[in-house]
Amino acid sequence: METVELKVEMVGIHEKRLRKCLAKLKGIEKVEVDANSQKVVVTGYAHRNKILKAVKRGGLKVDFWSAQNELLTAYASASYASYGSLRFNNFNFF
Q1: What are phi and psi of 75, to 5 degrees?
Q2: Residue 93's pLDDT is what?
Q3: Bridge partner residues of 61 (DSSP)
Q4: Is the dihedral angle over the CA atoms 17, 18, 19, 21 positive or is it negative?
Q5: How confident is the model at residue 32 (pLDDT cuts 50, 70, 90)?
Q6: pLDDT of residue 74
Q7: What is d(CA 47, CA 1) in angstroms, rounded to the nearest whole number?
Q8: Which residues contact 40 (CB under 8 A, 6 or more apart)?
Q9: Which of 68, 69, 2, 85 is nearest to 36 (CA)?
Q10: 3-state secondary structure 14-55
Q11: CB 56, CB 44: distance < 8 Å
Q12: Rounded (5°) CA angle 34-35-41
């Protein structure tokens, strides 16, 4: 059994679309979605490239999760918590 971590750009309705795309693949055991960090963990016997291709066919922007995504998520949440708005190098985004 293999675990594949993906970074998927999504909003509320995209989670349903994501689950529908993955339901068509054989060998998927479990799908965990963390909408806040836009992280999706897929567990099963399907090949990681087939999983990526299925999500892309569903019209979602997707890439494999990397350690850099962990750092960006932690930095953004720390900046947001301390300033009340999201800031990167003195530029306000919200």
Answers
A1: -65, -45
A2: 47
A3: 9
A4: positive
A5: very high
A6: 67
A7: 10
A8: 5, 6, 7, 8, 18, 31, 32, 33, 34, 55
A9: 69
A10: HHHHHHHHHHCCCCEEEEEEECCCCEEEEEECCCHHHHHHHH
A11: no
A12: 35
Distance CA(10)–CA(26), nearest Å, equals 23
pLDDT (tens digit per residue) in 43-82: 999 999 999 999 999 899 999 988 776 666 666 666 555 5
User: Which residue is it, tokens 């985004």?
Assistant: 93
Place of tokens 């087939």: 50
Q: How many CA atoms lie within 13 A of 78 on its CB side?
A: 7
The average confidence (pLDDT) of the chain is 81
